[in-house]
Each structure stands twice: as structure tokens, then as C-alpha cells.
Design a protein that fits this description.
globular, binds flavin mononucleotide, about 30% helix, binds the ligand C=C(O[C@@H]1CC(C(=O)O)=C[C@@H](OP(=O)(O)O)[C@H]1O)C(=O)O, alpha+beta, Chorismate synthase, AroC fold, about 375 residues, five-stranded antiparallel beta sheet
Amino acid sequence: MRRLRFLTAGESHGPALTVIIEGMPAGVPLTKAEIDEQLWRRQQGYGRGGRMAIEKDEVEILSGIRHGLTLGSPISLLIRNRDWENWQEIMSPHPRTEGTGTEKKVTRARPGHADLSGGIKYKHGDLRNILERASARETAARVAAGAVARALLRAAGIELVGQVTAIGGVTADTSDLTWEEIACRIPRSPVFCADEKASRKMMAAIDEARAAGDSLGGVVEVAALGVPVGLGSHVHWDRRLDGRLAQAVMSIQAIKGVEIGMGFLAAARPGSEVHDEIFWEEGRGYYRETNRAGGIEGGISNGEPIIVRAAMKPIPTLYRPLRSVDIETNQPYLASIERSDICAVPAALVVVEAMVALVLADAILERYGGDNWQDLKVALGR
Ligand SMILES: Cc1cc2nc3c(=O)[nH]c(=O)nc-3n(C[C@H](O)[C@H](O)[C@H](O)COP(=O)(O)O)c2cc1C
Ligand SMILES: C=C(O[C@@H]1CC(C(=O)O)=C[C@@H](OP(=O)(O)O)[C@H]1O)C(=O)O
């Protein structure tokens, strides 16, 4: 059973996003400021569009936290959409009054979005009824939930470090840097990349894509440091930690590939270059000199840093639009674009971190239990 569960709600241009997080032990220190910091990070990143100039994401804590400590009750959080002001009539929950409103239905299905399949599945002639919820605006609520999970991980001695490793085919080389060095450099880079030269090239690639009316995807990498041995299990498919991480990360809008450790690269290498040899030393215990497995063997964490990589496809809405069909007339059209991101890979990194945090916090609670932080601390041996 999931120990830490969360459920988000909210439309992209509705009044607000909400999230309920259930299963946090009592007594974990958690402040509004640390949730807001993660929300702020998600809004940064070179290549974003006009919407980010409107939104200033900030959390309102509705329940589950008192005087800076979790209560053990459901935590509910709210993030208002500033853009709602401009969409009140279009997004009104009330029945339409005859003869009012000039709103046109969205009938032009955008390639790369949920529009067409969602419209067919839910029998919506107005594709806005699909796109509002399919939008990655929802990731703000995931990041707020992730900040709650991060608070538990931090208390348990686990830290997450994330970096963008590729944008539009420009790849970073950070192989000579430690995770601590990477963590120091990331906030200074507008694309959250620790390789300064690659950072500049990535920004130039985004500028080029913008000028060409195109968009770019990329690759992000998250490392979880300080994870104890034994999270997840080999005994069932849905208890394997690698499977749980892959599902959570793949569920993020526009993520099309997830790797743990060497991932796809391992398929091309002989076994002698893929597996991590095991050593033992008095006082140190078991250790490995390499971490090609990315911290998980047989679905169980092995004590090495957990390394998760995710590939994001380019943003599907292009200023030089792709061909599609109007579902009312079945006639071809070329869309006119009002605004869109060119590249949201840095934002996606923050979302991947959030999903990794939620899975690891759930796995910690599964292994160590604890209704309150004191019991959990004892179980963790801290
Ligand atoms: C942080 C973030 C921002 C995004 N911004 C946009 C955007 O401005 N325009 C757009 O067309 N898609 C954007 N996307 C991607 C779409 O939400 C996503 O491709 C779409 O919902 C279809 O889902 P799928 O790619 O997972 O199939 C964004 C994704 C993320 C993670
Ligand atoms: C609002 C966010 O991302 C949005 C995700 C998104 C999409 O189609 O996924 C489309 C854009 O929204 P809009 O159509 O209102 O310009 C992005 O700005 C956000 O990240 O907070």
C-alpha cells in the first residue's frame, strides 16, 4: 500500500490548483518558504513563454501544518492562477446564459497534445475541456507536493541534486564534478546546467529555435544522495523501486524516456563494463567503486546514489505550426499561436525532482513506518 499519496486538481486557466498529500508523519519541520522556493525554481529557466510572466506561484497552506510542523493529518495546498482573472468567463463553472458570451469552442486539435484522443474519449466537442487539465500547469501542484516529500527526505538525511544534461542535442559534460559542486553551480545557470560552456550553447540553441518558430526538448538528471539500503523490493513488480520511479517520472507531461543509472547505454556494453563490483572493508562495510546501476539492483536501493534520467520531447505547440484538422469540419488548418514555451527542460527538472522525492518518501515510510518523526528517526537510526 502507498504510504504517501497525493492527488492534484485544477485547470490551467481555472481559479487555482490544489493538492492533498496524505501519509506524512507528524512532527516533520515544514515551512511555506521551502514550498515556495521549489515553486519559484519551477518557474525559472531560459526559454519559457508569456504565461510565466503572469504567474508568481505561491502556496497557501490550508491544512496539515501548524507552527512549522506537520500534524500527521492530510496536508492540503492551494496555488492560485493569476491568469484566472483573464479567463473567468471562459472557465466559469456556471451554466451559460442564453445569448451571452462570445467564446468560440476550441475545435482545432494540436498535434503532440491530448486534444484529439481526449476529445474522442470524453466526447468533448470543445477541446478546451481536455487541454485545460492536460496542461503542464498541473506540475506546479506536483512540485508543491514534492516539497513536502523533500522535507521528510531531508529529515531522513537524503538530499536531491538535479541538473539539465542536454537541450536540443547540446550535451553537458559534468563527469569531473562532484554532486556537491554540481549543486553549487546549478542556481547560477539559466538552464540549470553545471557545465558553463554547454549552458551558453543551450541558450543559443533555444534562441535559434525561437527565431525559427520551433521548440526544443532535452535530458535531465536527478541524484538522490544518502538513500539507505533496502528501499523497494524484488518480490513484486509494483514494489520494485526502479519501476516506481520510472512510472512517476514518465507520468510528467512531455517526458518520453526514463533511465536508471547507465540505462540505454548498458544495452550496448559488455557485462564487465556495466556491473558494479562489490568490496568490503572493516569500518566501511560493503561498497562499490562504480555506480553504473544508479543505486538500484533487483528493484532495491543498494546504498549508492540513485540516479534517474528523463528525456523530454520538444514542446508540441510551435510558432511555425504543424498541420492538423478541425474536428468540426474535418478540414485542414494551420493554427495561429498566441503564446507557448520554446523550451521547458529546466522547469521539467524541478518536476522530476518532485516526483523522485515523492516516490522515495513513500518508500521510506513503507520500510521504516512511523506515525511521527520521533519514531521514524529511531527506525532510521538517526
Ligand atoms: C514544465 C512544462 C511546460 C510545458 N509548456 C508547454 C507549452 O508552453 N506549450 C505546449 O504546447 N506544451 C507544453 N508542455 C508540454 C505539454 O504539456 C505536453 O507535451 C502535453 O500535455 C502532451 O503530453 P505528453 O507529451 O506527455 O504526451 C510543457 C510541459 C512541461 C513539463
Ligand atoms: C502554465 C504553465 O505551463 C503551461 C503549460 C502548457 C501546456 O500546454 O502544457 C502551456 C502553457 O500555458 P498557456 O497555454 O497558458 O500559455 C504553459 O505556460 C506552468 O508551467 O505553470
